[in-house]
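so the lab meeting is tmrw and i was supposed to have these ready like two days ago... anyway. pasting both below. for each one the top line is the aa sequence and the line under it is the structure tokens. i havent really looked at them closely yet so no promises
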Amino acid sequence: MKKNTFYFLLLVLVISLMAACSDNRTNTQVAATADAKSEDQDKGVATEMKLVKDGKLTFAMSGLLKPLNYKENQELVGFDVEIGKEISKRIGLEANPVTNPWETIIQGLRGNKYDAIIGSMTATEERSKQVDFSIPYYVSGATVFISSENKDIKTVEDLKGKTIGVMQASTYVEDAKKYTDKIKEFPSEIYALQDLPPGRLDAVITDRIVGISAMQESGLKIQALGEVIKREEIAVAINKDNEVLLEAINKAIEEMVEDGTYKEISMKWFGKDLLE
């Protein structure tokens, strides 16, 4: 009787162990299947993105806009670059930042030289005729800068007839036309700002962040003339036939803001949240 009881209990134990192993295998298989399905979905989305290079998000900038995007030891760095790298990571792609002259940067995008422009481009109605824009990844404003020694220009009304410097093919060209027809265009705002102290320019219209950073980083003896003259939303530009990529980038930006990653990057470069 005792022997039969022993064999019965042993049989129950064996069956229980077999059931547990089966459950573990089932759970492992389910997890593996889910992972594989997720990976396949990611690959499918990446395929639909119409990327210039498989597995990479190639995004362009001028590389001349410190601290937003510039070269340090032959490597592209800056706020725009970090934002681009974070977006790339979140949509499962390798970041591939590149440079292109600003005056032809939209043509380069439309010619499929790169997938996106993440280079502090203002989203405007005119540009929207050629490309699509993501939700803003920072908000700034056009600002007038003058030499610290300039005593003649006290308000924007004093800009009438003055020589104003702007970056080529920027929205600031139209802003400058409101005050003067003496406009000098430069490949970079930094070059224009450097012409203020020696008096080669009377004023420069550029992004407020760029001007203030130039004052801090380069020690340029310049000053902002009052508050911003125009609020600007800066966004990622994408070709119009790439809706899947646009949706992925928008989602990535939203997630960055929600989980605090965006604020960390912004605080690192500017000491403030550029979306607030």
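ok protien two:
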Amino acid sequence: MKPTLTLAAVAALVAFGAGAQDRADWPSSFTIATASQGGTFFAYGSGWANMVAQELGVTGAGEVTGGPMQNMALVHTGDAAFGLTTLGPARESLEGENPIAPGLQMTNACAMFPMYQTPFSVTALSSSGITSISDIPAGARIGFGPAGSSSDTYFPRMMETLGVAFERRNGGWSDLGGQLQDGLLDVIAFAAGVPVPAVSQLEVQTDINIIEFTEEEQRKILAAFPVAPFDIAASTYTTLEAPARSVAMWNFAIAGCDLPESFVYEAVKATMEDNARMVSIHNSARSTVFENWDKNNVLMWHPGAARWFREQGADIPDDMVHGG
């Protein structure tokens, strides 16, 4: 008597064959370009790499890099499959203004999913008497964070837009916090996830002012830069008694535009359908949700990512999808 297969067994074999076919052009491993160790990008990206590797059965890991600008270059050239970037540096990279390769339009980096916002905030010692942007004196020594960071790239331009004349200083956030406390800086202009550890440490040790933008200042910045309105919640710092008006720049995960559609689709699906796990990797992933898909107005979407978001109801136009 010949053995027979049940309908369920036949269906399973068909599904297996289709899955194997879908994976035929998948990479055997992948890297995610993140940033320096100790930063949010590195923690988020390394944890996300482990998650995707486990879910897809493909070896993957986070890679230490110089941050958003370098990540655009690494993904564009294919040296990294995935990366993390900020929409401001992404726009400059697309326009050929990435300092890593001036003139090269990095159009082979496509959007995967929204990550979280990076707010821009200003801090000064209370003893300085600086309580507003307009109080910052001409020639003030302002710390803008690590050289080449999103903060160092955009905050000096924002200050110039608001008419502030300053001396530019760079360094790690903790180091700049110490310089502010020692009187070597007048102001620190932060672009980092909140609460910024350096600010939290400062307010324990001394009295500080966390300076918000006026409505007019916020409008000027929104008109000139790829940022969105943002309020720093009063609960973020003990110094704040009410939300502080600010702006923020969205961070997005990116993929090489020529990666297989099914590979990117499954990576996005694994990420977006388990937010609790993403939040366990880093609290900022509370913003890594479907509803924030429309924050991308800079990058073309990877076809695999666009497919998943469209299945959930996202109205992504064809001219924003790579090859669409």
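from a quick look at the 2nd one: The domain at 28-116+251-320 is CATH 3.40.190.10 (D-Maltodextrin-Binding Protein; domain 2). The first strand starts at residue 29 and ends at 33. will dig more after coffe
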